[in-house]
C-alpha cells in the first residue's frame, strides 16, 4: 500500500516560526486543519504543538477535534448547510456565514442547545466565492444583531481559492473600514477582522498589511511551506512535512511507443507519441498508486531523473530511462506534494498515513 508521512519535527519547526511571526505582529491565527481530513494521528500532532484554534470544513473533523481536545476553539470554515445546523452548533464554537436564513437557523438551534453560537460574517471582496455583497452588508448586519443566541465576533473575506484574486493593501483596508462602519453604526464591538490566509502572509514582510487585519487562517503555508502569493517555496519553512511513498510493483524494459490502433485512454484523452521513439525501449515501473488517489500533476518525484508516463485508476507508470539508479521490484519511490495532491491523498482511504520523528 502507498503511504504518506507527516514529519512531526518539521511540522513543529514550521508552526513555531509562524507562531512567532504572528505573536510579534499581535495577530491571532487559526490553523486550517481540513487538509488532514480528520486523521486522528495527524490531528494529535497539531494538538501537541499547543494549537489554540482549529478550523475545518467538515463537521466530522470538528467532532474528532473536540473529542481529542475539547478546549480547543473550533471554527466551521464555510457557510453551514441546513442539514448540519445542529451539529455545527454542537461542534463548532464559531461558524463563517453569508446567509441570513442560515444564521437564523443557527440562532434557533443554539437556543435549543442553550448555547451562544459565535459567527464571522464573510464579505465579498472580488473573489466571487462566499461573501455578502458589499452594498447589502450594513443591512445584513442589522438583521443579524437582532437574533438571540448569536454573537458576531468577526468580519472576514476570502482570496485566491476560486478566481485567484490576490489580497492587496487596498482591499484589506476596505475590509477593516467595514468593521469600523459596523461598530460605529450599531455600537457593537467586532473583535476579529479575518482577512489573512496563507496567501496574505507575504504582505506582512513588505509592510503592506493594514493594522486592522488581526486574524489569519493558515493551512497551506504551515503544512507545505509555500509562499502562496508568489507561487514559490518559503525560504524559512520546511516544504517536506509530508512525503508520499509508493512501491514499485512492476519493472520491465518495454517499447516507448505502443503498438496497435489507438483510441482514447481511461480519461477519454487521445495520446500522441513521439515517432522518434519508435523502436526504442526504456525501463518502465508501475507503482501502486492511481487516479483514484491523486493526479500525477500534483506530485513530483524526488528523484528528478524519473518521468511520468501516465496513470490509470489504480496504477501509475513512470519512465526510469536506462535505470541507472538500479531500482528493483519492491523499492519505494518518494514524491513531493502540492496542496491539492496532499488533499487528495489524505482524503483517500487507500493511502496509509504515518507519523515520523514523533
From TrEMBL:
<dbReference type="InterPro" id="IPR001608">
    <property type="entry name" value="Ala_racemase_N"/>
</dbReference>
<keyword id="KW-0413">Isomerase</keyword>
<dbReference type="InterPro" id="IPR000821">
    <property type="entry name" value="Ala_racemase"/>
</dbReference>
<dbReference type="InterPro" id="IPR029066">
    <property type="entry name" value="PLP-binding_barrel"/>
</dbReference>
<dbReference type="GO" id="GO:0008784">
    <property type="term" value="F:alanine racemase activity"/>
</dbReference>
<protein>
    <submittedName>
        <fullName>Amino-acid racemase</fullName>
    </submittedName>
</protein>
<dbReference type="Pfam" id="PF01168">
    <property type="entry name" value="Ala_racemase_N"/>
</dbReference>
<dbReference type="GO" id="GO:0005829">
    <property type="term" value="C:cytosol"/>
</dbReference>
<feature type="domain" description="Alanine racemase N-terminal">
    <location>
        <begin position="8"/>
        <end position="225"/>
    </location>
</feature>
<keyword id="KW-0663">Pyridoxal phosphate</keyword>
<dbReference type="GO" id="GO:0030170">
    <property type="term" value="F:pyridoxal phosphate binding"/>
</dbReference>
Amino acid at each position: 500500500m502507498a503511504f504518506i508521512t507527516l514529519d512531526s519535527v518539521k511540522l513543529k519547526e514550521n508552526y513555531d516560526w509562524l507562531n512567532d511571526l504572528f505573536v510579534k505582529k499581535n495577530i491571532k491565527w487559526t490553523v486550517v486543519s481540513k487538509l488532514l481530513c480528520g486523521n486522528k494521528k495527524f490531528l494529535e500532532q497539531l494538538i501537541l504543538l499547543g494549537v489554540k484554534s482549529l478550523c475545518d470544513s467538515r463537521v466530522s473533523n470538528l467532532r474528532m477535534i473536540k473529542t481529542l481536545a475539547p478546549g480547543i476553539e473550533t471554527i466551521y470554515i464555510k457557510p453551514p448547510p441546513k442539514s448540519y445546523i445542529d451539529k455545527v452548533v454542537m461542534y463548532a464554537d464559531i461558524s463563517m456565514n453569508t446567509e441570513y436564513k442560515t444564521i437564523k437557523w443557527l440562532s434557533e438551534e443554539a437556543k435549543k442547545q442553550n448555547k451562544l453560537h459565535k459567527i464571522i460574517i464573510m464579505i465579498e471582496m472580488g473573489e466571487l466565492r462566499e461573501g455578502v455583497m458589499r452594498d447589502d452588508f450594513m443591512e445584513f448586519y442589522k438583521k443579524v444583531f437582532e437574533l438571540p443566541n448569536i454573537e458576531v465576533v468577526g468580519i472576514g473575506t476570502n482570496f485566491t481559492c476560486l478566481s485567484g484574486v490576490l489580497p492587496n493593501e487596498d482591499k484589506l483596508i476596505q475590509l477593516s473600514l467595514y468593521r469600523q462602519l459596523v461598530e460605529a453604526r450599531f455600537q457593537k464591538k467586532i473583535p476579529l477582522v479575518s482577512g489573512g490566509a496563507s496567501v496574505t502572509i507575504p504582505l506582512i514582510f513588505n509592510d503592506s498589511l493594514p493594522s486592522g487585519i488581526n486574524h489569519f487562517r493558515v493551512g497551506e503555508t504551515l503544512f507545505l511551506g509555500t509562499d502562496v502569493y508568489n507561487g514559490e517555496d518559503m525560504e524559512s519553512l520546511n516544504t517536506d512535512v509530508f512525503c508520499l511513498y509508493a512501491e514499485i510493483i512492476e519493472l520491465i524494459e518495454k517499447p516507448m511507443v505502443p503498438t496497435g490502433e489507438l483510441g482514447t485512454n481511461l480519461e477519454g484523452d487521445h495520446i500522441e507519441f513521439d515517432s522518434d521513439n519508435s523502436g526504442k525501449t526504456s525501463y518502465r515501473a508501475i507503482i501502486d498508486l492511481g487516479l483514484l488517489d491523486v493526479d500525477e500533476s500534483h506530485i513530483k518525484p524526488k528523484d528528478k531523473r524519473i518521468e511520468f508516463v501516465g496513470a490509470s485508476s489504480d496504477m501509475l507508470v513512470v519512465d526510469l530511462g536506462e535505470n541507472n539508479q538500479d531500482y528493483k521490484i519492491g523499492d519505494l519511490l518518494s514524491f513531493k506534494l502540492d496542496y491539492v495532491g496532499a488533499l487528495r491523498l489524505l482524503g483517500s482511504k487507500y493511502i496509509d498515513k504515518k507519523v515520523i520523528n514523533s
